[in-house]
Amino acid sequence: MKYDFLIVGAGFAGAVCAERLAASGKRVLVVDKRNHIGGNAFDRKDENGVLVHPYGPHIFHTNSKRIFEYLSCFTDWRFYEHRVKAYVDGDLYPMPINRTTINKLYGLDLSEQDVIAFLESVREERGTITTSEDLVLNNVGHDLCNKFFRGYTRKQWGLDLSELSAGVAARIPTRSNDDDRYFTDTFQFMPAQGYSAMFEKMLDSSNIEVRLSTDYNEMKAIIEYGHLVYTGPIDAYFGYCFGKLPYRSLDFQHQHLSDVEHFQPTGTINYPNDQEYTRITEFKYLTGQQHPGTSIVKEYPRAEGEPYYPIPRKENEALFMRYSALAEETADATFVGRLAQYRYYNMDQVVGAALKAAEGLI
Q1: Strands (DSSP E) along the chain, which ranges?
Q2: Which residues does the UniProt record annotate as the domain UDP-galactopyranose mutase C-terminal (predicted)?
């Protein structure tokens, strides 16, 4: 059988492209080397019946009504605003840094205007913002930088703040009020039945065939198809001809605690300066599931392993652009997604990129 499209990867990028192309009448084959759909957003119940995210917490948020309405075709939603605390000097503080963080940390009683003045007094002005260190010091100064950012960054990325592009730290705001939400997007929801159920509905079409535990490289020569949609690592596609693009990986240590209703006071606790792991997430906060026990995950950043995070540095972007130029010359293939576009995308950004890519192919 000849397919109109072969899609490599059944995560957000691949599934959205497959759904859009199939809805337009195209015959689509989706392959994934893993034994499940959903990519890193895949979720399942653990052996104790708690819904967990095997590849770490995935919390959906977006300001795009279009993207939210599109995904709403495949899931109901549970309203959820994620909250994070950071363990610093033996106590827990709201993260991102806000008025509560500063007052508690320094034993102050500042108003919102006082916090603005305080931050102005401690910040180290940087004329040109190039690195994440420039950005953080320019916003909050040395002490808050060292307590909340530098150690976490070193663990997460294996690099100092001064070695990362400013865009990494720019993802985390600083607030003068008491808003302790991690995100402030208009739409903050979790799929009511989980991500895997949403992906199943997305791929439920007579025009879509899914083959799991299937390596694209082992079957590409025997499958007839018109156009390729590739969502894997772009450097791997081109045989690493310019060298490997750097990625950061993670090890996940999952743990179930019987007869413990909650392990911690909020969904995620960061450990910027203590422990080998960067954070602990407790899934029942995210899902709203009722269960007499609870399940948590600790995240240990690694230099080697599955590619999770493109590392935002100028030299890495330059290397990616060489691969991107090859991709532009590959007329029978479209490259989309975090790995194929070497971008530190949020989930909604992947959906947006996939919708755009599919529109260009229909």
Answers
A1: 2-8, 28-31, 44-45, 51-52, 61-62, 77-79, 84-88, 91-95, 187-191, 208-211, 224-230, 247-257, 268-270, 279-282, 294-302, 309-310, 333-335
A2: 147-344
Cα(282)–Cα(264) distance, integer angstroms: 7
> Is position 58 within any domain?
no
> What is the radius of gyration, based on Cα positions, of the chain?
22
Per-residue confidence at 171, pLDDT binned at 50, 70, 90? confident
Q: What is the dihedral of CA 278, 279, 280, 281, to 10 degrees?
A: -140
Nearest to 197 by CA among 357, 37, 5, 6: 37
Q: Please, are residues 249 and 55 in contact by the beta-carbon 8 Å criterion?
A: no
At 220, the pLDDT band (50, 70, 90 cuts) reads confident
pLDDT at 168: 84
Helical pair 12-23 and 195-202, crossing angle rounded to 10 deg: 30
Q: CA 272, CA 156: separation in Å to the nearest integer?
A: 9
Per-residue confidence (pLDDT) for residue 312, from 0 to 100: 86
- Residue 25's domain comprises 2-37+203-246+311-361
Identify the bridge partners of residue 352 per DSSP, sorted by sequence position.
Answer: none
The token pair at 302 is 């690694």
Count of the separate structural domains present in the chain: 2
Three-class DSSP category at 231: coil
| 99 & 163 share domain | yes
- Please report the DSSP string for 115-183 in residue order: HHHHHHHH----SS--BHHHHHHHHHHHHHIIIIIIHHHHHHHSS-GGGSBHHHHTTS---SS---BS-
pLDDT in tens, 294-324: 999 999 999 999 999 999 889 999 999 999 9
- 236 and 357 share a domain? yes
Residues 163 and 218 occupy one common structural domain: no
Q: Which of 142, 143, 132, 129 is nearest to 172 (CA)?
A: 132
163 and 110: one domain? Answer: yes
Residues 21 and 140 in one domain: no
Euclidean distance between CA atoms 136 and 145, whole angstroms: 6
For residues 322 and 227, state if they share a domain: yes
Question: Are 238 and 346 in the same domain?
Answer: yes
